[in-house]
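Curious: can you check?
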Amino acid sequence: MAWYERATKMELQPESDAQPAIRPTQVIFHSIVAGWTARRTYENWRDSTSLESHFGIGYKARDIAQYIGTETRADANAGANRRADGTGAISVETASNSTATDPWSAAQVEEMINLSVWAHKRHGIPLQICRTHDDPGFGYHSMFRQWSTSGTACPGPTRIRQFREVIFPGIVARATEKEGDMTKEEHDALMFLRRNLGRIGRVGPIDRQEFHAAGYYLAVGEGHAHSADLKLDEVMKRLAALEAKIVAHICR
């Protein structure tokens, strides 16, 4: 079992020992629709329901607890709890107001990002937003029908937008902050990708419209941005090569 060193260990029994092993490939964020501390969430799992998450995050700084090791199934994600091939999702419950309409607090954002970077490094969860229900990466509860037995709006529109615009880009930024050996050209291109991660949903090749937003300078240098000598296909080819180099740097 894997335990996150930043979280307070509040182990649920018998679930922690009795439930089957998983190979974590996803992190899924939830809102619990209650302003609970991490301990109160633990008490709810222990005393009031047969469900449980791997983690709980309250509103205050460092209010994060782990209830089950991340290589053991937890039952908050329906079909993503454990699949036939043994893969499964790490579930993270977070405090919210009683209508699930508030944004994650700054302290919650920090804990979510730190936990996600740990999951990326400990379990190899890739730095991408899940594209399908079984695609490895990061997501939120209402993203796919297979992750909920009866459908859900969790974590709500405000937090969904925050996940795409703040949380996920923050995960990638924190996980890739060691960039001392990158060239200026690579660094500038990486900064563009980070700014747009919430929109394009992953680190990887961008299409022609996104290429125009990136600017020619990413591929050929700012001084040649409007060179009539370069055809679009040639610039696209050079940009794709640059992006492949950046992605290789990020994921190594």
Observations:
- Residues 232-251 form the longest helix (20 residues).
- The helical segments are 15-18, 38-48, 106-123, 157-175, 184-200, 208-214, 217-220, 232-251.
